[in-house]
Structure formats: structure tokens, C-alpha cells
Specification:
311 residues; alpha/beta; Rossmann fold; N-(1-d-carboxylethyl)-l-norvaline Dehydrogenase, domain 2; eight-stranded mixed β-sheet; four-stranded mixed β-sheet
Length: 311
């Protein structure tokens, strides 16, 4: 399968590496020192799940018609969506499918508006990964499972081909008949996880050592669940409790990509995470005071980083 990977950080870089190692024709879209390191030395993947390895995929900073792909993995941060969509447009030919593996809600709508609903597959992944250094990505946590599917729940031939490609690469993958629910389950998760890590500057389960912080975590996720249900998403009643149990049993190296960006002084995905819950809460009449608070707090460093970029 000919695959283009837009966004080669901890998520895109890991899956690009796994698919390239399995023999697929992979091209990575990268820039700067990361691009130069991959072109010179290959892509180094450090993985607690599958061991360390190096592959040598093609790499470019500007895909064109010669990079037309069967599958585009769309793995950029949400704030980069508009620019990334225009960058990959020449490579999204008539037979291409675009699989979004991003945090938050709304990327699928943006991609469908750009390329048409018949091009887009929705996906969620819980991989703990990071770009460790130029040319090096690290997967540090639990199984890098992908849950994906068609928005309408159908099982199509193209989705089966994508599933087979990842399965053959040793990546755990589930083709879901209700991928929208999976996306909302992850949103519930990440509103508690990344939102609370960022506002407290602490990790789980340390956050649970303060009862007030544990209560706030629960409220952030309950609000997200309530908004989802108001929008017709059939979330399980115990999704918050199940997620809290996961937080109580995290490993020794918890990761939050938004907290990594916060510490680096970078832009944050707050508007597609807690900010999306806050916005949709207003639209549906569901009160979301905790997510409103988290959003207001994190928009301050996000806007500061944005202003620095524009200078």
C-alpha cells in the first residue's frame, strides 16, 4: 500500500515506522531538522511494545502529485489542520482515503469539507508517544491500539484494506461500527487527562492525592459525557468511572502531549479538547463550568505562543 503520513511526531512517526518496516511504500511529511535527520539517518523508533528499530521511508516537506497515496494518515495537531489540509491536497487523488488519528472532535468535518465524505475515515488512538529528537520517535506507554471506521458505521472494502495493512504491520487495530462513540470516549478521557495535567502541572495518580483535584477530574469528564449524550452519542453510563480506574493505574511514565507542548511554550490543542466541550455545551444548553475554567486557563499560554509565532 502507498501511504503518506502527514505529521511525523509521536503518533504519525510511530505508525509510519511500523508500516514501513512491514514493507509498505511510506512517505513522511516533515520539516526542518526532523526532515533532515530522517533523510540522512532514517527514522528511529523506540518502542516499549515492539522493540527499537530504524527504517528508511521517503520524506518530503511538500508532497505533490507524485506522492499520490492509497492512504493518507492525518496526524497533525488540531491547530495545524487548515495548513496541513492544503499541503496534502495534491497527494489526495481519486482513489485515496484519509484516516484522521487526532485528538479531539471536528477534524473529520474539516477533512470531509476539503476532500468529500467518501474520502475520510475517522480514527482514535491511545498511543503514548513523542518526538524524542530529530529523526527519533518514542512510544512509551500502553498498546498503540487504533479504533477506526466509517462515520456511518458501515464496513467497507477500503476500511478492510486499511485494517489489513496495520494488522500485517503488527499494530493492534479495531474496525468499529460505531467509531463516533470511540472518538467521544477518547474526548471524555483526554478532557480529564490532559486538561487536569496541564492546569495542575502534575501527573496521575499524584492528582488523586488531592480529593478536590480528583473531584474536578471527574466533573470535567462528566461534563464531556453529558455534552456527548446531548448530541446523541450513546456513551456508556460508566465511561467516567472506567476512565478514572485507568487513571489510577497508569504506569511510571505518563504522557500528555498537550502538557509537553505547554512546557515547551508551544501552542495547545485546547480548542478541540476541553474547549470543544465548552463550546458544544453552550450550543446544547449543557453547563460545563470545569471545562470552561480549564479552557480559559490554557488559552492564556496558547495565545501567548500564537503571538510569538506571528512576530
Amino acid at each position: 500500500m502507498k501511504i503518506l503520513v502527514m505529521g511525523a511526531g509521536g503518533v504519525g512517526g510511530y505508525y509510519a515506522g511500523a508500516l514501513s518496516r512491514a514493507g509498505h511504500d511510506v512517505t513522511i511529511v516533515a520539516r526542518g531538522e526532523h526532515l533532515a535527520a530522517i533523510a540522512r539517518d532514517g527514522l528511529r523508533v523506540e518502542s516499549v511494545s515492539f522493540g527499537d528499530f530504524t527504517v528508511h521511508p521517503a520524506v518530503t516537506d511538500r508532497p505533490d502529485e507524485s506522492h499520490a497515496a492509497d492512504l493518507v494518515l492525518f496526524c497533525v495537531k488540531g491547530y495545524d489542520n487548515p495548513a496541513a489540509i492544503e499541503l496534502i491536497r495534491p497527494a489526495v487523488g481519486p482513489g485515496a482515503s484519509v484516516l484522521t488519528l487526532q485528538n479531539g472532535i471536528g477534524a473529520g468535518d474539516q477533512l470531509e469539507a476539503a476532500f468529500g465524505p467518501g474520502k475520510v475515515l475517522l480514527g482514535a488512538t491511545y498511543i503514548d508517544g513523542d518526538k524524542k529528537a530529530p529523526g527519533i520517535v518514542a512510544e512509551t506507554g500502553k498498546s498503540p491500539l487504533i479504533v477506526f471506521g466509517e462515520r456511518d458505521g458501515s464496513v467497507t472494502e477500503r476500511a478492510e484494506r486499511v485494517r489489513a495493512a496495520f494488522d500485517g504491520a503488527g499494530v493492534p487495530i479495531e474496525l468499529s461500527r460505531n467509531v463516533t462513540r470511540a472518538l467521544w470516549e477518547k474526548l471524555v478521557y483526554i478532557c480529564g487527562w490532559s486538561g487536569m495535567i496541564c492546569v495542575t502541572r502534575a501527573f496521575f495518580p499524584e492528582i488523586f492525592e488531592t480529593p478536590e483535584a480528583e473531584t474536578m477530574t471527574r466533573m470535567a469528564m462528566e461534563e464531556a459525557r453529558a455534552v456527548g449524550q446531548a448530541k446523541g452519542i450513546d456513551l456508556e453510563d460508566d465511561v467516567v468511572e472506567a476512565t478514572l480506574d485507568e487513571f489510577r493505574n497508569v504506569g511510571e511514565n505518563p504522557v500528555s502531549s498537550m502538557f509537553t507542548d505547554l512546557r515547551k511554550g508551544g501552542r495547545l490543542e485546547i480548542e478541540v479538547l476541553n474547549g470543544a466541550v465548552s463550546r458544544m455545551g453552550w450550543e446544547t444548553g449543557v453547563a460545563t463550568p470545569v471545562n470552561d475554567f480549564i479552557t480559559a486557563c490554557l488559552l492564556v499560554p496558547h495565545n501567548r505562543a500564537l503571538a510569538e509565532m506571528q512576530r
